[in-house]
Amino acid sequence: MAALPPDTRLDAxxxxxxxxxxAWSIDPDSCTPASADASFRRYFRVNSARPGHATLIVMDAPxxxxxxxxxxxxxxxxxxxxxxxxxxxxQDLAQGFLLLTDLGHQTYLSRLDPANARxxxxxxxxxxxxxxxxxxxxxxxxxxxxxxxxxxxxFPEWYVARHLGVTPSTAQQADLREVMDTLLANNLAQPQVYxxxxxxxxxxxxxxxxxxxxxxxxxxxxIGPITYDAVSLWxxxxxxxxxxxxxxxxxxxxxxxxxxGLPVAADFGDFYRDFEWMGLQRHLKVLGIFARLYHRDGKDxxxxxxxxxxxxxxxxxxxxxxxxxxVRLFDALEGVERAAGYTF
Length: 344
Known about the structure:
By secondary structure, this protein is of the alpha+beta class. It has helices at 8-19, 68-80, 108-111, 117-133, 145-163, 170-189, 228-234, 243-259, 268-295, 306-319, 324-334, and strands at 26-36, 42-48, 55-60, 88-92, 97-101, 192-195, 204-205, 214-215, 222-225.
């Protein structure tokens, strides 16, 4: 068997934590993978002799591909909002290393079941409202039309063209553009608040002794549509719930948001439409991202989640006349033939 190539980043990380000295008393040889995400960032767990910090997390963010400063900034913003996030204990921006508090091993995804879902999602909704209520204009980048459009463009580029190997006709491209423009008009008209952008079961942690949930992977936060994080949470690409349950949890969030004075739509029907249309933008983006992770980055684990994301997208597109051209495109891409209907 060929020897594994040297991991120079890991060697540098171990040297860095050792250099922190007796203030943290970290054993560099205890370094084990904690998690990896869809970027170049990696996370390692290390043992420490410091009281109250038996384990810590070290982020490895190669400076050529990642910037630690947004993580530090959003950690401060969200922490000030009163939610539980990893605290930045030490930093080396030149090397791209951060020492963080450890929020444990238990993701929402690993713990959610019908018995505890209402409590866990209630905790997540309460934390989301606190984050949104702390919004300060200009504190984060805008989730503007250009960014929303770039995300949508991942769908035709990576899911349709690269993953399915299909070149849509001129008419199909025009239909897709029309649907995208319709979605963007709705998304941009929604009230603007802090948006985590990946507020879902893999980034929320079940904690012992601290306020649930622990919130991870927030470095790409922006100011954008108020329904976005609710979509991430209840139309999660990694776990599916019956629509009746989604509605129940969403109504409870909407009521909590109204009590907190957040600018959600006064009529739940209007809010739900915003939620669905925001969800379609996100799910088209996610189809593109998961395809890109496979074809560009060699990460095939996300392919198993494509069917659920596609199901969400089809359901919403089929409910609204303004979006039904997208259903026809999905049918064409998948070779689905539907019987013609006649109206007399």
